Amino acid sequence: MKRDLFGNRMKTYEHQEAGRRFLPLLPVCARLDGKGFHKLTQGLARPYDTRFVEIMCQTTAYLVKETQACIGYTQSDEISLVWYSDDYKSQTFFDRRIQKMVSVLASMTTAFFNASLPKHLPEKTGALALFDCRVWQVPILTEAANTFLWREYDATKNSISMAARHYYPHEVLYKKTSAEMQEMLWQKGVNWNDYPAFFKRGTFIQKRKVVRAFTAEEIDHLPAKHEAHANPNLLIERSEIQRLAMPPFAKVKNRVEVIFSAAAPEVECEADGENVHHPDPTTCSLTCS
């Protein structure tokens, strides 16, 4: 009995901080950042290294899958996630326990990223990448969507700066605006608009339902009497973690629906103001194992 009283008293202290939870029915946001990545990325291709980008995208896909996040977004060495449920009884990631979310998200990201280094960046094998994590709530879905808009704005600003630093030393670029840096790139014969979208704006990743035929590998593993053996064009519906071919997020008119309902992004046509629907917002699928 005394041991129980002692243990309960210790748990009470712990619970005062470790037991804190976010409010239900409100979106929860998270951002993970690489810690001291300037050392890790030394020697990589500039202004970006597609191998590093691939690790960040695959790590984001892993987090979206394993935590059931509504969407993930990555740019540079950071990852953003959001969770939401309009059901009071529904449990989001770790039932909204703040310290659990912070600690486990940071450890999941660190572990997956480091495990990916030998395959994608073999020269960095043995390096120890670390990620920190912060989580917070916003009052409405629109503000949660604005969190991603904010990060895309930051990605664009960083992209212009990184591209300029590839051609000019730091002292030449000191206090230069993004517009001035783009002009300086132009003087080098470089059009920033020609860079790939993932470098200019980052990458959105989300679980989406797709209708497709079975792959040859899937058919090989199906029971002998399965209809797909006789009809290889048989269609199935599957959920897949996908990278989205997102238009500039500032131009997307249904940002909330895209994030929380996996809707196709709608953008306003600059020529005539019409809403243009993009029925297939995906470019490729990611396999998370």
Question: What does this protein structure show overall?
Answer:
There is one protein chain. The protein is globular and about 75 Å long. The protein is built from 11 helices and 9 strands. Helix 5 packs parallel to helix 7 (178-187). The chain has helices spanning 2-18, 37-40, 50-67, 98-120, 141-165, 170-173, 178-187, 197-201, 216-220, 227-230, 255-261; strands spanning 28-35, 71-75, 78-83, 130-137, 203-213, 235-244, 266-268, 275-277, 282-286. 28% of the residues are buried. It comes from Vecturithrix granuli. GO terms for molecular function: magnesium ion binding; tRNA guanylyltransferase activity.
Descriptive labels:
11 helices, single chain, 289 residues, disordered C terminus, two-stranded antiparallel sheet, Alpha-Beta Plaits, alpha+beta, 20% strand, 7-stranded antiparallel beta sheet
